[in-house]
Sequence to fold (360 residues):
Amino acid sequence: MNFLTDIIIAILAGYLSLTNSLAEKVDSLFSTDSEISSVAEITEVSSITPLPSSDRKPIPDILLRSSAYQQAALAGSAGLTGATTKDPFDAIVNVFCTMTTKEVIRTTTGTGFFIDPDGVIVTNAHVAQFLLLEEANDLGEAECIIRSGDPAVPKYQAELLYLPPAWIQDNSSVLSAKVPMGTGERDYALLYVSESIDDSPLPAQFPALGFNTSKLPLSSRNNYVLAAGYPAAPLLESGPSADLVPQKATTTISELYTFGSNYADVFSIRGSLVGTEGSSGGPVLNEEGEVIGVIVTRGDDNVDGSGSLRAITLSHIEQTMLEETSFDLTQNLSGNLAFRSQVFAETMSPFLLTILQQAN
Fold:
């Protein structure tokens, strides 16, 4: 009996040993496949698509050397700060500029949005550059007004608070281009509402959107976002008197791009009703209702569908502001804004105008 028991135990031990060995091999096989799959997935999303970055001369340091500008950032009361709305329809504006020469009257329309309740508007540099020309008549007579509402109607006059000098250096010929092109690098500006069109008192606070200057993670691909703007299709079809109405649409991030910072400086969003001319300068909000990007160019409709767009990130804006002013975005929204706008006009505007005049 013992002999028979020993034989059975030996057979069972051999069977268990064989099944354990097979189980280890199968587990090893699937573990390896899982690791390979994981590595492949990481490789697929770990890179940021590079965009050409301007091979510029050294960044103009006029503001860095201007003691008046540096002091203006700290002078006066801090004023109001923070978001007052999460609805982009409350905060977006239409920046409507005309430039009249002996040969032609040129109309440029873009979008902007209040980013500070004291009346600071973010828009594109390729729109805001026309405010530089309001005091210089040799290139033509320029006028810009801030419109808002549905449809957009004239509301405010605005002054330049900040326009990246490096953008003007790199894009001085855009002023005369029929269809401005570019990557969107440094294509942003800050405007400051100075007065109302009808001389009525300005609001005690403006409907400002909150913003997030954190660097976008790689996992941002396919995240839902909300884009808003004033598409210019009616103006293109019917002329300057056509009504422009605001549009907003939910879409998703499709790709991230970098100008060499190794972080997302630009992201593309899939096609929507917002994706037409005139929406440049509009906000792109994350699911928390914070602005994470500013629309700068059309996207690739073949890849992302009709009405695709690209936006520069708020982190790109903050990084380049630090380079050119030594202050981050929040600091550039504080201090005595009227005084800072005046100092910018006195110290930087003549330099930027000279560049534009020489190029055009």
Residues 211 and 237 are 34 Å apart (CA to CA). Residues 65-359 form a domain with the Thrombin, subunit H fold (CATH 2.40.10.120). Confidence is low (pLDDT under 50) at residues 1-45.
